[in-house]
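Today's session is about reading a structure prediction critically. Students often jump straight to the picture, but the first step is always the sequence itself: look for stretches that repeat, for charged clusters, for runs of hydrophobic residues. Only then move on to the predicted structure, which in these notes is written as discrete structure tokens rather than atom positions. Here is the chain we will use throughout the hour.
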Amino acid sequence: MKDTVNISSLHDYLLSMLNLLLDYSPKLIAALLLFFVGGYAIRFVNNVSRKLLIKREVEPTLVEFLCNVIFWGLRIVLIIAVISKLGIESSSFVAILGAAGLAVGLSLQGSLSNFAGGILIILFKPFKLGDTILAQGVEGTVIDIQIFVTQLQTDNNQIIFIPNGSLSNNTIINFSGKDTRRTDIPMNLSYETSIPKAKELILAVVEQNPNILANPKPAIVVRELNDSGVKIAIRAWVKTPLYAATHTQILESCLSTFEQNNIKIQPYLLTDNKQSNG
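Below is the predicted structure for this chain, in token form.
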């Protein structure tokens, strides 16, 4: 008798499961079909978006980021649609996602700031790969622009990582922003020196340098009369990539010329440096 009751209960359970499966099979089939078709459509949209962005010569970093945003954004929409097809209430699922997103956002405020800064840098392009910049007290060549950080390589081959949040919100000096750049080489000469003669000798040195551009014309100007001497500046234009080498060449040539003509270079006094910095 007991065996008969167990068999009857098992039969009823299997029958109810079969009815449940028959009831939900259309929804399950529709959900699976939506999942696979939606996945194919997402890949198609992602590939088309990538090709369009590359065709418009968008920054590679921005291309990868936008494609990832499109991919995962559509994936989330697809998952919500599939859940709805199965008959599950999607509003509660969306609320859970919103709460999780808020919690993650609050815990990653610094990272989100760097993320937003990276987007601004990529969109507005204050500098590009290969540019030499001065930012956050660091000077170097840009070797990589990522979503969260920018990498600089210094002259002594050090790699500097600067968070994009602070980088985008502070002053950036881009030394490579223009094709040409003006030198501003200061020198402090003795009051005993004939300034017209010194300017003539320096101008000759500058004009003999093959890297100096003829237009705009180079100039030697008196900038300041201080306690230690006469402060002059050498202003000449060069191609930006040749700036550092030309700067050194002019200094070496001027030193040799001064030695030959008995022109003394005066050291800056501490008070002069304070006035200059102020």
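Discussion point for the tutorial: The first helix runs from residue 2 to 55.
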